[in-house]
Amino acid sequence: MTISKVEPVGLIGGEALEAWDAKWESLPGGFSVAHRQLKGMAGLYRAVAHGEVVVIGKGSGGQANRLYKRLADLRRPGDSGRNYPAGRFIHKNIAWLELQVLVLGGDREACKTADSLLRPMLILHRPRENVPMAIVDEAVQQSYRGLEI
Question: What is the separation of C-alpha 47 from the centre of its chain, rounded to a whole number of angstroms?
Fold first, then answer.
């Protein structure tokens, strides 16, 4: 008989979203610096502009594609690792954006937790640069429906 570990509803990686949200750490030098301490580590990153969370992303792939690699992709001159609006936004504003990370560890469980945390963090913070333009356009159009101008 196999017994599987089941988490209580509302927990991600054994903790509530609010507990995870309290663990973000600012990194000196922001996105412009290579943070070698992140090599092999899985987790989330976010860009903060004037106190507002504007982008949230993750680094949780294979050993070579975690936080360190994702952040390096945002820094380098070519754009193959940034073919999405949030990545282009970070690259364009790299000098002044604050970088915060939520480091989860270097094992497979940490990668799974990062994958599970991304969507709830996006819903919690609603970073404007992560939102697809089609959603923004529709929201703007809906706000004007029914108004007499």
Answer: 8
**pTM for the predicted model, two decimal places:** 0.81
Q: Is the distance from CB of 56 to CB of 118 less than 8 angstroms?
A: yes
Instruction: Kindly report the length of the chain.
Output: 149
Q: What is the largest CA-CA distance in the chain?
A: 68
Kindly report the CA angle at 108 between 107 and 110, in degrees rounded to 5? 70
CA distance 142 to 149: 14
Q: What angle do helix axes 85-92 and 67-75 make, rounded to 10 degrees?
A: 60
Domain 15-144 -> CATH class: alpha beta
- Considering only CA atoms, give the Rg of the chain: 17
User: Can you count the helices (H) and strands (E) in the chain?
Assistant: 5, 6
The residue among 45, 20, 15 whose CA lies nearest residue 33 is 45
Q: Which residues contact 8 (CB under 8 A, 6 or more apart)?
A: none
The CA-atom distances, in angstroms, between 59 and each of 50, 94, 121 are: 24, 18, 14
Dump pLDDT digits (tens) for 65-106.
699 999 998 888 776 656 788 888 998 999 999 999 999 999
In the chain, the amino acid numbered 48 is V
